[in-house]
Design a protein that fits this description.
Blueprint: E1 3-7, E2 10-12, E3 18-25, E4 34-39, E5 46-51, E6 58-60, E7 68-73, E8 78-83, E9 92-102, E10 105-110, E11 114-118
Parallel strand pairs: 2-11
Antiparallel strand pairs: 1-3, 3-8, 4-5, 4-9, 5-6, 7-8, 9-10, 9-11
Length: about 120
């Protein structure tokens, strides 16, 4: 059974930092790309960052480039999101996600999310 569990969210002041973690199980973590999404109140869920499985190449939304860093530890089956220079507009529920190839096609899995609030 595929399982994704986020942690590390909380309340932080503008300019501060947080490190989110997403522990996984139930699939061969090292062979799948991983992504972080976020959803702010009243807004659609948006892609924040992605890291590939093989080379570990990364891509970021323009709004977080230069401030956020996605990384992975294949030995711990965990993906991270280091968030620096946080802004109030970064306030959202953050989700990790992966697309798993199954017999009937590709299925997207989500964690339960972790709340990040940036406020003074």
């Amino acid at each position: 059974q595929v399982r994704l569990v986020e942690s590390g969210g909380g309340l932080v002041q503008p300019g501060g930092s947080l490190r989110l973690s997403c522990g996984t199980s139930g699939f061969t973590f090292s062979t799948y790309a991983m992504s972080w999404y976020r959803q702010a109140p009243g807004k659609e869920r948006e892609l924040v960052a992605t890291i590939t499985s093989a080379s570990g190449s990364t891509n970021y939304a323009d709004s977080v480039k230069g401030r956020f860093t996605i990384s992975r530890d294949n030995g711990k089956n965990t993906v991270y999101l280091q968030m620096n220079s946080l802004k109030p507009e970064d306030t959202a529920v953050y989700f990790c996600s992966t697309d798993i190839v199954a017999s009937l096609g590709i299925r997207r899995y989500w964690g339960q999310g972790t709340q990040v609030t940036v406020s003074s």
